[in-house]
Write a structure and sequence with these properties.
Strand content: under 5%
Radius of gyration: 17 Å
Oligomer: single chain
Helix content: 55-70%
Structural class: mainly alpha
Number of domains: 2
Order of helices and strands: HHHHHHHHH
């Protein structure tokens, strides 16, 4: 199926007047985010913009392609916040992107008053995307790493 990216839809909205919003919604219905799939659409858009492939992200995060796909498409909902963080980190998401992804998935954003989250924020802000290095940073502070979480 042909997909329109968010940027293309954003451009259409620039020229849409309030009296024409109904037309926009009707014309673009199949491209608009389903509330249950918002995380997937956002995650996929960011991954595509970074020229990465989902299967490579799943492999780097240490999850099978079938399990990772079910988590990302929200066919199977995880209660493991660290797993979502891990997928975002290996996809080289920035702090704002990770926080938005967490929020769309239904989790709290990274919080600077939480010691583990503070370490993750520092790692991300310093562009450390290797899980082993992040786990070393966490372990050095006596905190549980991301790699064991699935």
């Amino acid at each position: 199926m042909f997909m329109k990216d968010t940027g293309e839809l954003d451009k259409k909205l620039l020229n849409t007047t309030p009296d024409k919003i109904g037309d926009y919604l009707k014309e673009n219905d199949k491209f608009l985010a389903d509330g249950d799939k918002s995380f997937y659409y956002y995650f996929k858009d960011v991954v595509d913009a970074k020229n990465m492939r989902l299967k490579d992200i799943y492999a780097a995060a240490g999850v099978s392609e079938s399990y990772g796909s079910k988590i990302v498409t929200m066919e199977k909902h995880t209660k493991n916040r660290d797993l979502i963080i891990k997928l975002c980190v290996v996809a080289h998401f920035g702090l704002g992107e990770i926080n938005r992804a967490l929020k769309l998935y239904g989790f709290n954003e990274l919080y600077s008053k939480n010691p583990k989250d503070a370490c993750l924020i520092v790692a991300i802000n310093n562009r450390i995307f290797e899980l082993s290095k992040i786990d070393e940073l966490l372990a050095g502070q006596g905190l549980e790493g991301l790699s064991g979480s699935e």
